[in-house]
Amino acid sequence: MYERASKDEEQLFLKIAIDLVATVKEPSNWMKPRNPKKHAGGKPVSYHFKPMMLVLLLMNYHRKDYREMEAHLKCNKHLLTELGLKYSPNKSTIHVAHRKVGTKLLRELNDTALSKFKKEDVEGGEQRNTYL
After folding, report:
1. 67 lies in a domain?
2. What integer pLDDT is reported at residue 37 of this predicted model?
3. Helix (H, G, I), strand (E, B), or coil: what is residue 81?
4. CA nearest 109: which of 28, 10, 21?
5. What is the structure's pLDDT at 31?
6. What pLDDT score was predicted for residue 45?
7. Domain total for the chain?
């Protein structure tokens, strides 16, 4: 029962996050190739901006680190389809994406998404929080 409720909450959060991410502009440095003289090796970014933003928001929502998020995606293949990914990104890819996006933007988007979970009662034009 708890797993089903948890999955439903994740789906609701994901639905809200998809709408939010659609409003965000991709940073100019997202698909910028690495300078091989400064950073030898590595691959260019192979994941698009919006799916990776969703991964980062889910990671923040679940309070997971990069390794835990990688494992979560590998264990929940249905999430990959919902996120628009063919393969699960590895922990390094998630970490690089987090660095490129920045904590400030992620925090703002996460706060906005989580505010939709709060139950608010609007009476007479005044908003009042209700706690159960």
Report:
1. yes
2. 73
3. helix
4. 21
5. 77
6. 56
7. 1
Residue 87 has what DSSP assignment?
Answer: S
Pairing of strands 126-129, 120-123: antiparallel
Quick one: pLDDT at residue 64? 94
CA distances in angstroms from 60 to 29, 42, 105, listed in the order given: 22, 25, 12
For the chain (length 132 residues), average pLDDT per consecutive 10?
64 90 87 68 71 94 93 92 90 91 90 71 39 38
Q: Would 37 be classed as within a structural domain?
A: no
Q: For the whole model, what pTM was predicted?
A: 0.76
Q: How far is CA 125 from the centre of its chain?
A: 33
> Is there a domain that residue 72 lies in?
yes
CB 64 within 8 A of CB 72: yes
What residue numbers bound the domain in which 104 lies? 2-27+46-115
Give the DSSP per-residue string, 93-117.
Answer: HHHHHHHHH-HHHHHHHHHHHHHTT
